[in-house]
TrEMBL record:
Subunit field text: Homodimer.
Name of the protein described by the UniProt record: Pyrimidine-nucleoside phosphorylase
Function in brief: Catalyzes phosphorolysis of the pyrimidine nucleosides uridine, thymidine and 2'-deoxyuridine with the formation of the corresponding pyrimidine base and ribose-1-phosphate.
Pfam families per record: Glycos_trans_3N, Glycos_transf_3, PYNP_C
Key words, A-Z: Coiled coil, Glycosyltransferase, Transferase
Gene Ontology annotations for the cellular component aspect, listed alphabetically: cytosol
Catalytic function, reaction form: 2'-deoxyuridine + phosphate = 2-deoxy-alpha-D-ribose 1-phosphate + uracil; thymidine + phosphate = 2-deoxy-alpha-D-ribose 1-phosphate + thymine; uridine + phosphate = alpha-D-ribose 1-phosphate + uracil
Coiled coil regions in record: 279-306
Family stated for the protein in its record: Belongs to the thymidine/pyrimidine-nucleoside phosphorylase family.
GO biological process, one term: pyrimidine nucleoside metabolic process
Length: 433
């Protein structure tokens, strides 16, 4: 085979075979195919799309480019959840223990945050002593013992995706449904899940800006999952305001504890219960999502979900007194209110601007090398649909900086105020199953 012929084939919109796609991915991973040829192929894909068979072949070739985690020693159906990234998205911290409290094994590999979205691992590390680097046999043992472990990625999962993503980033080829879908699904499949629940977010703070684009991506991922033998369900959820109230590591852990105690923000609790219901059904621990929902709600109210979180924190070396008394979690030295300059109704809270504000305060990383200040962030006081008077507090800035004016400006800019009343926004737009 010659790469130039395959580039030309794709440019003429002729379907590539599975063998050809495997050859390309192997060659690129082994550095036999140069970046300039791979870039040309990627651009042809951006323009000509990929067929269902090509998308599956690309995903599987990327899975096979590295290690595949073997979770077969864990009893039961292993269901993973993936979010395409949002601001204030602490759902994994709540979903893990909640679903595990129903007997569903959760063996989760999570990532760190970069840019305006936070990472589950960083949030967990705001709990003193929490260890997220665990050997594979211990990881599996912990899931068998208590049904839940969350760790950093181990091994060399889907290296082809890592190289391709870096190339796409600098060649204007990130925005392509087949390339995004295969990138995300290759990592999920390599991480060993039997079934996958996806939370595809759209809006200002999200990767996909519109509902239509998010739907197209979600459908593509569900098809790939199914064709690869993994039951997959995708949610389409709104990111036109941050999820819950808290943005920042320890602040989000605190909100997760409140939610696990049945006292969380309504939007966050509802999304968690809906996602968890589908995970429980996929794991065959409930006959339908309505039944699962009722049982899960009970687990939030009777303390079992919170108890599971404590067990998990203890198993990974974390200080459980911080879970019992969240005020022992890291805090910021000052809390500054950000007030409304006009009266009206909150129409929109630009999640991207809030995410940037949190990052400027030190809650996130602008570059991989940055260190995180665990106690800082933003806590919203008003959400979309609420009426406000001039001088009302819109949000609180939790800061250790002498001057937080830049972050405050981002927060002010994020709030759009309307003079006429605004409906509370829909959070879950669709579920593709
Ligand atoms: N996230 C991924 O993992 N891959 C993409 O291509 C885009 C977002």
């Amino acid at each position: 085979m010659r790469m130039v012929d395959l580039i030309s084939k794709k440019r003429h919109n002729i379907e590539l075979t599975t063998a050809e796609i495997e050859w390309i991915i192997n060659g690129y991973t082994n550095k036999e195919i140069p970046d300039y040829q791979m870039s040309a192929l990627l651009m042809a894909i951006v323009f000509n799309d990929m067929t269902k068979a090509e998308r599956l072949a690309l995903t599987q070739a990327m899975v096979n480019s590295g290690d595949v985690v073997d979770l077969s020693a864990i009893e039961g159906v292993k269901v993973d959840k993936h979010s395409t990234g949002g601001v204030g998205d602490k759902t994994s911290l709540i979903l893990g223990p909640l679903v595990a409290s129903m007997g569903v094994p959760v063996a989760k590999m999570s990532g760190r945050g970069l840019g305006h979205t936070g990472g589950t691992l960083d949030k967990l590390e705001s709990i003193s002593g929490m260890k997220i680097e665990i050997e594979m046999d211990q990881f599996i043992q912990q899931v068998n013992d208590i049904k839940l472990a969350i760790i950093g990625q181990t091994g060399n999962l889907a290296p082809a995706d890592k190289y391709l993503y870096a190339l796409r980033d600098v060649t204007g080829t990130v925005e392509s449904i087949p390339l995004i879908a295969s990138s995300i699904m290759s990592k999920k499949i390599a991480a060993g899940a039997d079934a996958i629940v996806l939370d595809v977010k759209f809006g200002a703070g999200a990767f996909m800006k519109t509902l239509d684009d998010a739907k197209e991506l979600a459908t593509a991922m569900v098809e790939i999952g199914r064709d690869a033998g993994r039951e997959t369900v995708a949610f389409l959820t709104d990111m036109n305001q941050p999820l819950g109230f808290a943005i920042g590591n320890a602040l989000e852990v605190k909100e997760a504890i409140e939610t696990l105690s049945g006292n969380g923000p309504k939007d966050l609790e509802e999304l968690v219960l809906q996602l968890a219901s589908h995970m429980v059904v996929l794991a065959k621990k409930a006959a339908n999502t309505e039944q699962a929902y009722a049982q899960l709600k009970e687990k939030l109210q009777n303390g079992e979900a919170l108890q599971k979180f404590k067990e998990f924190v203890a198993a990974q070396g974390g200080d459980t007194s911080q879970i019992e008394n969240p005020e022992l979690l890291p805090t910021a030295s000052s809390v500054i209110p950000v007030t409304a300059t006009e009266a009206g109704y909150v129409e929109k809270i630009d999640a991207l601007s809030i995410g940037i504000a949190a990052m400027k305060l030190g809650a996130g990383r602008a570059t991989k090398e940055d260190t995180i200040d665990m106690g800082v962030g933003v806590v919203l006081n008003k959400k979309v649909g609420e009426a406000i008077n001039q001088g009302d507090v819109l949000a609180y800035v939790h800061t250790n900086q002498a001057d937080s004016q830049e972050a405050i400006e981002y927060i002010k800019k994020a709030y759009e105020i309307s003079s006429s009343s605004v409906c509370s926004p829909t959070l879950i737009y669709d579920i593709i199953a």
